[in-house]
């Protein structure tokens, strides 16, 4: 058994399980952009709150492989609702968000009746879930805002402009911060936004990073079949949207394959609204045989690709959104001991440090050069991989985030009579 495969201790989670500081608490978590348990950050929050003694219910959308309207998994009640489609464009997002708010409101009432809750945790995007939480605040419920994305910057990254809709995102952000009793920030940049733009006091903001569960993300036997007979394998994990910069990565691949003549295969694990367009771009660049699109894939595929790759890439465009955001893929690459190439972004460097090489912002040619440099130097790849693994084990793994999450919930403790008791009805299995 290698060091990467050995189970690691979880002292903070063990202490929460023993002390049960959340005993008697009932929590409702609302997340809109991913189903559970697929959303790893939110699922780890759910399991941590459960381990600490809380009753936890979740409202989330359905997704491929997660279509059941109700499931109870590891003690967590999961209520899923349909969404009309995967939105593209401003009108599509308005339709998606409107449908989601309707389902979230009706399911929140169902959870209140069946299980009761004293605290609502809203996970953005979008910054609209406060509309569901506000009526319950009038009943004494507490509102925790789990700040995953900075929506004004995300809007500008997606649509490349400002305007009245952008100003509306700023207004919704202010209202969400105003409604929140406690804010959970994913990094220090977001913590500063909560204080500067949101007007929150330092005592109301807690940094809980999206640390990987290091006993779940485990190396498996490499499978070089993913390289399709080529000398090198590059891995990418994540959503395929406009702001992820995968078009820049494909241009870097064109330079590596057709100009530098490298024998290299790229595997892209994930789905999203831009996947079809990116597949078409890959064909136009003559990369059909050098790029594999897996779509949204199970953990078995993800783990195998990350265990087999020579290096991993994060081509997120440098813009105000990506500069201040911590990307889950970076943490996962480091958990698997993978060296990384990414563009120069503030929080990307904070997370990865010496585990990454940094290309000039949005420069596909420089990204290709950094990838080529790393592919040519196995010793450098090994040193960077070890540095990343050490950092994520020491500082960034999920167990280290447990105290901050529980401290946030302690700060959001409701009045003793705030929780509504469930009616005692059995769950019917319908949402």
UniProtKB/TrEMBL annotation:
GO terms for molecular function: hexosyltransferase activity. Residues 41-205 form the Glycosyltransferase subfamily 4-like N-terminal domain. This is Glycosyltransferase involved in cell wall bisynthesis. Pfam families: Glyco_trans_1_4, Glyco_trans_4_4. Keywords: Transferase. InterPro entries: Glyco_trans_4-like_N, Glycosyltransferase_grp1. It comes from Limimaricola pyoseonensis. Gene3D superfamilies: Glycogen Phosphorylase B.
């Amino acid at each position: 058994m290698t060091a990467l495969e050995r189970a690691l201790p979880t002292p903070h989670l063990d202490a929460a399980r023993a002390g049960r500081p959340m005993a008697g608490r009932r929590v409702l978590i609302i997340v809109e952009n991913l189903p559970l348990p697929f959303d790893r950050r939110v699922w780890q929050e759910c399991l941590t709150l459960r381990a600490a003694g809380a009753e936890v219910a979740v409202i989330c959308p359905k997704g491929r492989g997660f279509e059941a309207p109700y499931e109870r998994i590891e003690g967590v009640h999961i209520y899923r609702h349909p969404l009309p489609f995967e939105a593209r464009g401003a009108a599509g997002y308005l339709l998606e968000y409107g449908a989601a708010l309707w389902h979230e409101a009706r399911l929140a009432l169902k959870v209140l009746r069946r299980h009761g809750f004293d605290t609502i945790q809203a996970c953005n995007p979008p910054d609209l879930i406060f509309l569901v939480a506000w009526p319950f605040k009038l009943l004494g419920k507490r509102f925790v805002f789990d700040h995953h994305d900075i929506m004004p910057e995300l809007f500008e990254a997606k649509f490349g402009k400002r305007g009245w809709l952008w100003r509306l995102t700023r207004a919704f952000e202010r209202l969400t911060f105003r409604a929140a009793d406690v804010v959970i920030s994913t990094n220090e940049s977001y913590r500063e936004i909560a204080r500067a733009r949101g007007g929150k006091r330092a005592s109301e903001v807690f940094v809980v990073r999206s640390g990987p569960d290091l006993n779940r993300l485990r190396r498996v036997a490499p499978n070089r079949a993913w390289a399709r007979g080529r000398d090198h394998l590059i891995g990418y994990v994540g959503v395929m949207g406009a702001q992820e910069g995968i078009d820049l990565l494909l241009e870097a691949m064109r330079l590596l394959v057709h100009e530098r003549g490298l024998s290299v295969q790229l595997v892209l694990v994930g789905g999203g609204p831009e996947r079809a367009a990116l597949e078409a771009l890959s064909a136009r660049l003559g990369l059909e045989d050098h790029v594999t699109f897996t779509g949204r894939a199970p953990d078995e595929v993800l783990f195998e690709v990350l265990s087999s790759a020579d290096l991993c890439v994060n081509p997120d465009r440098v813009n105000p959104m990506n500069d201040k955001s911590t990307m889950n893929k970076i943490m996962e690459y480091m958990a698997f001991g993978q060296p990384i190439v990414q563009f120069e972004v503030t929080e990307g460097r904070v997370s990865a440090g010496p585990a990454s090489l940094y290309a000039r912002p949005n420069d596909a040619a420089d990204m290709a050069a950094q990838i080529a440099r790393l592919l040519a130097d196995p010793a450098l790849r090994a040193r960077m991989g070890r540095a990343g693994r050490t950092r994520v084990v020491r500082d960034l793994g999920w167990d280290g985030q447990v105290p901050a999450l529980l401290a946030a919930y302690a700060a959001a403790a409701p009045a003793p009579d705030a929780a509504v008791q469930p009616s005692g009805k059995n769950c019917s299995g319908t949402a």
